[in-house]
Amino acid sequence: MLHNKKAGRLAGIMIGLSMALSSVAYAEDDPIRISYIDPLSGPFALAGDGGLKSFQFAARKLNEDGGILGRDIEIVPMDSKQSASEAVQLVQRSADEGINFITQGNGSNVAAAIIEATERNNRRNKDNKMLYLNYAAVDPALTNELCSFYHFRFDAASGIKLEALSNYMKDREDISKIFLVNMDYSHGHFISERMAELVDERLPHAEIVGDVLHPVGKVRDFSPYVSRIQQSGADTVVSGNWGIDLALFVRAIDSAGLDVNVYTYYGGAGGVPAGIGPRGEGILHQVTEWHADVNVDEGLKEYEKWFQEFKEQYPEFDWYYHRIYNQMYMLKAAIEEVGNADDIDAIAKALEGMEFESPTGTVTMRAKDHQILQPMYISVMDTNAKYDAENSGVGFRTVANIPVEQATVETSCNMTRP
Description:
Layout: H1 2-29, E1 32-38, H2 45-64, E2 73-79, H3 84-96, E3 101-104, H4 108-124, E4 131-134, E5 151-153, H5 158-169, E6 177-183, H6 186-202, E7 207-214, H7 223-232, E8 236-239, H8 244-255, E9 261-264, H9 272-276, E10 284-288, H10 294-297, H11 301-313, H12 322-338, H13 344-351, E11 355-358, E12 361-365, E13 372-373, E14 376-382, E15 395-402
Parallel strand pairs: 1-2, 1-3, 3-4, 4-5, 6-7, 6-8, 8-9, 9-10
Antiparallel strand pairs: 10-14, 11-12, 12-13, 14-15
Keywords: Signal
Protein name: Branched-chain amino acid ABC transporter substrate-binding protein
Family: Belongs to the leucine-binding protein family.
């Protein structure tokens, strides 16, 4: 009888061990999941969908090349509805589903809420930590007073973009009267305040002649704003608008026959080129880390193949988010350095300070605040560009290549590390 009990216990142990080993093997075969938390409905759905398609494409390309540690990457779409509170719920849902990585980009107010929610989860659930990879939310506060060990920004912060832009504008004598038009939230407020400071510091030949903030995603007729620009005598407009708010704004400028140059962050993204078309030629400028004709200008033949393949797969979109390429490959490098996709603290430590050879040059994830530093380009809409944007008949032509040292600002981050 004793022998039978021992045999039973041994059989139970072996069955348990077998199940545990099967569970480990199954976990190792599971995809590495990344929650994509951005608007997939409402007025900014087009911008969110473009980002989603870009992440799905990048994941597929990595998977074709063996994935990460032999595991596929899976992008899990989650609709934030451009709501901070909704995004917080989706962070919790991601935690409940065992998803360790979150990415988001549309709306710095949403990004701030995600940072807080990620920090809260990681304090309470030390065995189920999460990493937030920010591909487009640019409020400088996110890597200054709100900086977090579990947040990494792969886009240039707003202050960095204005640094690059002002270094370009300071040598342009045709810029004398500047009008600021921005969305009424943290992103727009920062541009309004910092651009005024930079004009005082660097553009003695120029002045701010107007500064307005408007509701986000609610203005359908921008003609009153355009009238104010016209009355001010401005020759230059600086705007952080994006999505439908930028497309409608530039169309109103064209409809009024206003002769101004518009400098913005997102001229090539989220339905803007399709919404503007040739009316933006010679008017609409953007400051970005990449645009399609950079491939032509700098002979990036391999990356040109990437861009063309994306366009073939998603004809309604362009490969706009070069930063997504950087983000996905830097995440892969960090996880493979650690050898484990679940050790979030170790992956974060591998990411901070990382230097990565991107197609456009060396990019660095600054360790102090987790802000990426990279070369920037200023480009203008041009019908003679090799690649048009969103099948609009107009693409972008480089007017300035801004090196990293002219696209860098200091940080006040005082990060708490585990």
